[in-house]
Amino acid sequence: MTKFPMTVRGARALEEELKHLKTELRPQITQAIAEARELGDLKENAEYHAAREQQGMVEARIRDIEGRLQNAQVIDVTAIPHTGKVIFGVTVEIANVETDETVVYQIVGDDEADIKQGKLSVSSPIARALVGKEEGDVVVVKTPSGTVEYEIIEVRHI
User: Fold this and answer.
1) Res. 38 pLDDT band, cuts 50 70 90
2) Which residues contact 150 (CB under 8 A, 6 or more apart)?
C-alpha cells in the first residue's frame, strides 16, 4: 500500500478533527436522532431525516480521516539536519527572477495543501521543481502561461 507524506502539524490537525467528530459531534447526532424518533411518524419527520443525513456525512468523514491517517507517512522536518536543500516539509522563500516578487511556501502533502495559507502540495509543479535544489539555485517552472524562473532565497526547517 502506498504511503502519502504528511507533516506532523497536518497529522495532528486530522487527529484533532477525528477526536472532535467521535467525542462531540457523533453523540450530539445520536441524541438528535433519539429526540426526533420520539416525535412519532418517521416517514414525514424532517428532523429525523436531517439528523440521519448528518450522521451519514459525519461517519463518512470519520472513515476518510482514519484512512488518510492509516496511509500517512508522517515526516518531522525538524528532526532532519538542515542542509539548505529543499525537501518535504520545509518552508522555502523564492523570488521571481524577472519581477523580484518573493513568496514563501511550505511544502506539504496533498491533503494539507492550501495556497492561501502558503502551503504548497509536494506534487505541484513548483514544488516538484524546487525539491532537491539548494539556496541560491535558480529553478525553471513550466506554467500554463509559459516558463517562470525562481531563485531560492532561503530554506527554513520550521
Assistant:
1) confident
2) 94, 95, 96, 97, 126, 129, 130, 138, 139, 141
